[in-house]
Amino acid sequence: MAKRRPSAAEQHRRAVATYVAAGGEESVQRVITAIGSLSRKLDQWYARQLADLGVTAGEWAVIAALAKADGALTPSHLADLTNVAPSSMTHRLDKLAERGLVERTPDPENRTRILVGLTSPGWEFFSLAIRGSDVVESDVLQDLSDAERGELARLLEVVIARLDDVEA
User: Fold this and answer.
1) How many C-beta atoms lie closer than 10 Å to residue 13's C-beta?
2) pTM, rounded to two decimals
3) How many CA atoms lie less than 13 Å away from 33 in the CB half-sphere?
4) Residue 117, H or E segment
5) Segment holding 84, helix H or strand E
6) Which band of pLDDT confidence, cut at 50, 70 and 90, is reported for residue 99?
7) Is the dihedral of CA 55, 56, 59, 63 positive or negative?
8) Cβ neighbours of residue 92 under 8 Å, at least 6 residues apart?
9) Half-sphere exposure (Cβ direction) of 65: Cα atoms closer than 13 Å
10) Contact 116/74 with Cβ under 8 angstroms?
């Protein structure tokens, strides 16, 4: 008989108990372990979604960075934002340009520099992916009221603001 896989809640409780037994503070471990578990589970779902859409996680990182940018970006800036070598960025941009999702144009202020931006089909692709992920993300949060979602978002934003002050 196949062994039953523990539920996400059971895995969370076990992990927290392990970290507390090793000396971690329970309230801290409950929060950090929950955030890590949620992130890993969503990453697994996003990877499947991206595969279904025919893009790699690296290509998606470029599309998302361009969508969030206030205007076009240089390939080197995109490489920095997505934590890849410039040569890897060139390859990603080639693939995305072949699909018509991004375009490269000369920088009007510096003709030796290239700017990269999303095309209309690139923005449509980004929007399609976001609408698809919103369905799963909404399901994950369905047991929270609008007020609870707002409070959770506010609390996480407080934690995120603190990230820049913590040296890892």
Assistant:
1) 14
2) 0.81
3) 20
4) strand 110-118
5) none
6) very high
7) positive
8) 58, 59, 62, 84
9) 24
10) yes
